[in-house]
Amino acid sequence: MIPAAFAYERARSVQEAVQLLEAHQGEAKVLSGGHSLIPLLKLRLTSPGVLVDIGGISELRGISVEGDRVVVGALTTHGEVASSDLVRDKLPVLAEAAKQVGDLQVRNRGTVGGNIAHADPASDLPAVALALDAVVAVEGPSGPSEVPVADFILGPLLTSLGASDVVVSVAFPIPQGSWKGAYEKYPHPASGYAVAGVAAVLGVENGIIRDARVGITGVADTPYRAREVEAALIGQPAGEEAVRRASERADAEGSFSGDLFASEDYRRHLSRVYTRKALLRCLP
């Protein structure tokens, strides 16, 4: 498995990366951690003429709180998110999901920006990003912009990124009030990818569910928000019966299909089971 020949450019700033991408007019790909792109290159599933390496741009690294959001730089690794005291304090569900990405080597090299931009339908972080209404910050030829992750991920390996755009950061809003979150996953035993992964967030006041967010990955062609599950929970007493009933709607949305890892019926079953598991952990 040898990639096709390509030229290599190392960008020293986000602006330079955008300029390099624009100069090569759709023939270039961005290289960050490489754990998504390099395997595709080796299999020749993609053959860009140029790789633009953004790995040395320090401004794309780091984790901070800005207002009511945790902002994660695009080059921040999964391992850094999983071990961050700030993330574990403000958004433990994000730290929990990051800790389950791949194996130790993948977590130490793979980046949050690369993960979201790759848009693998079996990736862990999109489930949390959807549940938390995360926003992707993008720099392009026309300047900076922000795109809700629900509008950013369009399909399997497909996003709204333009050919000359660079992901700068991902901002995860911190839910307000009393809330708990959980990420439950059925991993593929070899790759660690999610055959099913569910991120759930519940806000409960006086024993009543006031807010419910459920993001599901792995089971469908594109990660999705389980809106029918959420609607079935809001206004209900926070208990196992409400969770059981609502979880049965987990496969009411999403474009399901089978593959060599799991049939369509089994993926639907897993979506219900792991939605229930995640929601039960969110109960007070």
UniProtKB/TrEMBL annotation:
EC number: 1.2.5.3
Record SMART domains: CO_deh_flav_C
Keyword Phosphoprotein attached: no
Keywords from the UniProt entry: FAD, Flavoprotein, Oxidoreductase
UniProt enzyme class: oxidoreductase
PROSITE patterns noted in UniProt: FAD_PCMH (PS51387)
Domain FAD-binding PCMH-type: 1-177
GO MF annotation, one: carbon-monoxide oxygenase activity
SUPFAM superfamilies, alphabetized: CO dehydrogenase flavoprotein C-terminal domain-like, FAD-binding/transporter-associated domain-like
Protein name in UniProt: Carbon monoxide dehydrogenase
Organism encoding this protein: Kyrpidia spormannii
Lineage, opening ranks: Bacteria, Bacillati, Bacillota, Bacilli, Bacillales
